[in-house]
């Protein structure tokens, strides 16, 4: 489990402590504050702090002095207009700080989103816990034959059992050696900053990750996509549920125009128009490559 009883008690103590404030708050986000949303076998996502709500986006767009100068439905209409026309700056007025516990190999994907402030648990100063991500059998898959960075069919039977055994054994053995190298029982003990090099990429790390809503939406658009790697996608999906409660109008616009929408090239748009006029269009007459045509047809066929 991601949290011990002591950690759960600390969270409940933090949630029990309230403070009076004049700043804008989001009732939906308040319900998530500090709570741990469990992800994978040992991971979690927690909201540590946030700034702004839907009205902050509207306020920035209009440069108004209050929480909004128009009716709520007009505010949502403005938010949808901003999203539709890629006006990103007003969304930068909202910020969120998350505590995330995740496998190291997922963290290395995540950190590619560089528009955030990150502070990671330091294995130079502290000793990492014996916690490793071991996939559930249904998430063990072969290499895709079509996508160099994707998965194919699920492994089954003896092969799946063998892979799981290796993952558990290799992780456990590496950690045993890590502990042995650190030990000062009858030896000096290797420095923590050196001993950590022996740890596998499926060990769990933790960090605080702070970003604004615009850059968070970019992260979610890529990582909550069905084609994203499962192990990072489940984190993105957990964050999506939090954001939907935090800024519901902005999230609905994001879901409509980004998650559920599609971007078409000029050639693809020309094909749509030709099809609309009743013309039969093929890959050969489209002007698109085979890969482009395959992706275009996937959009058209849903």
From TrEMBL:
Kindly identify the residues recorded as the active site: 223
InterPro entries hit by this protein: Thymidylate_synthase_ThyX, Thymidylate_synthase_ThyX_sf
Q: Name one GO biological process term.
A: methylation
- According to its UniProt entry, what is the function of this protein? Catalyzes the reductive methylation of 2'-deoxyuridine-5'-monophosphate (dUMP) to 2'-deoxythymidine-5'-monophosphate (dTMP) while utilizing 5,10-methylenetetrahydrofolate (mTHF) as the methyl donor, and NADPH and FADH(2) as the reductant.
Task: List positions binding FAD.
Answer: 89, 112-114, 120, 218
Please give the pathway this protein is involved in: Pyrimidine metabolism; dTTP biosynthesis
Q: Which reaction does it catalyse?
A: dUMP + (6R)-5,10-methylene-5,6,7,8-tetrahydrofolate + NADPH + H(+) = dTMP + (6S)-5,6,7,8-tetrahydrofolate + NADP(+)
Which GO molecular-function terms appear in the entry?
A: thymidylate synthase (FAD) activity
Q: Say which domain of life the source belongs to.
A: Bacteria
Q: How does it assemble?
A: Homotetramer.
Cofactor(s) needed by this chain:
FAD
Q: What protein name applies here?
A: Flavin-dependent thymidylate synthase
- Indicate which residues the UniProt annotation says bind dUMP: 109-112, 120-124, 196, 223
As recorded in Swiss-Prot or TrEMBL, the protein's gene is named thyX
What is this enzyme's class at the first EC digit? transferase
Q: Supply the alphabetized keyword list.
A: FAD, Flavoprotein, Methyltransferase, NADP, Nucleotide biosynthesis, Transferase
In short, the EC number is 2.1.1.148
* Cofactor detail note: Binds 4 FAD per tetramer. Each FAD binding site is formed by three monomers.
To which protein family does this belong?
Belongs to the thymidylate synthase ThyX family.
């Amino acid at each position: 489990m991601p949290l011990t009883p002591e950690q759960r008690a600390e969270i409940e103590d933090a949630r029990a402590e309230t403070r009076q404030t004049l700043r804008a708050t989001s009732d939906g986000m308040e319900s998530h504050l500090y709570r741990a949303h469990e992800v994978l076998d040992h991971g979690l996502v927690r909201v540590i702090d946030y700034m702004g709500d839907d009205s902050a986006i509207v306020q920035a767009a209009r440069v108004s002095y209050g929480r909004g100068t128009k009716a709520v439905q007009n505010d949502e209409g403005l938010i949808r207009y901003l999203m539709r026309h890629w006006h990103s700056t007003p969304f930068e007025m909202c910020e969120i700080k998350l505590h995330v516990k995740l496998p190291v190999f997922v963290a290395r994907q995540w950190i590619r989103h560089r528009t955030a402030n990150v502070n990671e648990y330091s294995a130079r100063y502290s000793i990492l816990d014996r916690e490793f991500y071991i996939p559930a059998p249904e998430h063990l898959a072969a290499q895709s034959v079509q996508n160099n960075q994707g998965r194919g069919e699920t492994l089954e039977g003896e092969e799946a059992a063998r892979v799981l055994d290796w993952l558990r054994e290799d992780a456990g053995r590496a950690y045993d050696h890590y502990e042995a190298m650190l030990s000062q029982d009858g030896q000096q003990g290797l420095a923590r900053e050196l001993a950590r090099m022996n740890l596998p990429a499926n060990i769990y790390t933790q960090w605080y990750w702070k970003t604004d809503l615009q850059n968070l939406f970019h992260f979610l658009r890529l990582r909550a996509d069905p084609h994203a790697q499962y192990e990072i996608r489940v984190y993105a999906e957990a964050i999506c549920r939090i954001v939907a409660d935090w800024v519901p109008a902005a999230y609905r616009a994001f879901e409509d125009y980004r998650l559920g929408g599609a971007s078409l090239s000029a050639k693809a748009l020309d094909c749509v128009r030709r099809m609309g006029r009743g013309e039969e269009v093929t890959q050969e007459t489209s002007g698109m490559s085979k890969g482009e045509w395959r992706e275009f047809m996937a959009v058209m066929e849903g």
